[in-house]
Amino acid sequence: MTQVFLASRNAKKLAEMQRILAEHVPDIEVLGLDDVTPYDEPAETEPTFEGNALIKARVAVEATGLPSLADDSGLCVDALNGMPGVLSARWSGSRNGSVDRDRANNELLLDQIHDVPDERRGAHFTSAVAFAYPAGAGGVVEHVVHGTMPGRVIREMRGAGGFGYDVLFVADGHELTSAELPPDEKDAISHRGKALREIAPFVAGVLTGL
Ligand SMILES: O=P(O)(O)OP(=O)(O)OP(=O)(O)OC[C@H]1O[C@@H](n2cnc3c(O)ncnc32)[C@H](O)[C@@H]1O
Ligand SMILES: [Mg+2]
């Protein structure tokens, strides 16, 4: 069994990552924030998903000494020139528990694009997944991949699965929102699924070589 630390405060995101990794990295044991000594989690100060994913993974490996994965992700809405983007998690400014936060974010987004016609409601989810691991003499090696899921923002919230903006998002070629899709179907087409499947062989190689 080889251990990887997943640096995320979002339990539902963490569950997705765990599920996808378990399928694609043999004998992986995934640890979360509750399994390690608490450390100061960094602010997400970068203007890009990649930059923020790297901050989270780098601080995680420095704090835990474990090979660490982090995802930074968000919804980029065409009619909002790519926003909420890296600000997706706190778009409504709310810092409460995740269900309240998600609801406030979704209500604000619906209001903002209320007058945008159906043909201009395109959007995509993006995920940057960063992997950082110790490499001797205090060094850290970093690797980043990206995944996207194109689709559109609908006019009412539908579904109870997933998290965040899933209730408002219908992927291209689908009718159900990503909150209505069974988890394995979301993983098969999601930004996070694509990024994690791309990085999985690399993670597996590093873990077996460590
Ligand atoms: O930073 P960590 O601790 O991992 O957890 P977080 O929820 O703050 O995660 P991000 O900073 O990456 O912000 C991502 C936000 O983008 C949205 N988002 C990302 N991926 C999503 C997905 O698969 N489905 C729905 N919304 C998603 C959702 O609002 C997330 O809170
Ligand atoms: Mg965050």
Automatic annotation (TrEMBL):
UniProt catalytic activity: XTP + H2O = XMP + diphosphate + H(+); ITP + H2O = IMP + diphosphate + H(+); dITP + H2O = dIMP + diphosphate + H(+)
Binding site for substrate: 8-13, 73, 163-166, 186, 191-192
One Pfam family in the UniProt entry: Ham1p_like
An example molecular function term from Gene Ontology annotations: XTP diphosphatase activity
Record EC number: 3.6.1.66
InterPro entries xrefs: dITP/XTP_pyrophosphatase (IPR020922), ITPase-like_fam (IPR029001), RdgB/HAM1 (IPR002637)
Protein's name in the database: dITP/XTP pyrophosphatase
Organism field: Nocardioides mesophilus
Phylogenetic classification of the source organism: Bacteria, Bacillati, Actinomycetota, Actinomycetes, Propionibacteriales
